[in-house]
Amino acid sequence: MTPLLSALVAGTVGTVSAPLQLDTLESLVETATGPLGLLIIAGYSFLIAIALPLPSEIVLVAPLDLGISETGDFVLITLVSGIGKAAGSVVAFRLGHEARHRSGRLVEWLRDSQFDIVEWSERRTIQLARRYGYIGLAIALSVPFFPDTLSIYAFTILEEDYLKFAAATFVGSAGRLLVVAGVFAPVTSLFGL
């Protein structure tokens, strides 16, 4: 990745995460190199799927430097990040299902309230899932600089297939990194940076 592309991604992600005080974790990803760097990228991507409300593009600034080409490093970062996020999404999937089964009293109270929030949100979520299914999840996860956690947990409510869910998460994660690199790389190369 070019220095300008790295600076753009790091700067954009840094401004999003500054209020969350996750500088140490970001710094770890931004300096990840070698085989250990791949583990750091996988762990960070795993955590993003479960709990970190941060965009995942920061993995693109990791100076992996495995002694292969920049393209090879990019491919490895994309694969490892996608696998980490897919694994994390399976955990989030399980947590989402557990939460759905344990929230019975709260759901009953909300259903009985004057504004049936549960029915409205269920109707909207069901419409989205029926219309786009797992492809919708992959598309939602391909949106750059948008927290993955929100999309992942929203889809856990309706979906039942762990394997398809993980596959959609992997495709969306890889798609996002390709979109970011595809948008920023031509701009940086245009200026010879």
UniProtKB/TrEMBL annotation:
Instruction: Provide the alphabetized UniProt keywords.
Output: Membrane, Transmembrane, Transmembrane helix
Q: Indicate whether Protein transport appears among the record's keywords.
A: no
| Origin species | Halococcus dombrowskii
Q: Which residues cross the membrane?
A: 33-54, 132-155, 167-191
Q: What is this protein called?
A: VTT domain-containing protein
PANTHER family documented for this protein: ALKALINE PHOSPHATASE LIKE PROTEIN, INNER MEMBRANE PROTEIN YQAA
The record places domain VTT at 55-183
Would the keyword Transmembrane be found if you checked this record's keyword annotation?
Answer: yes
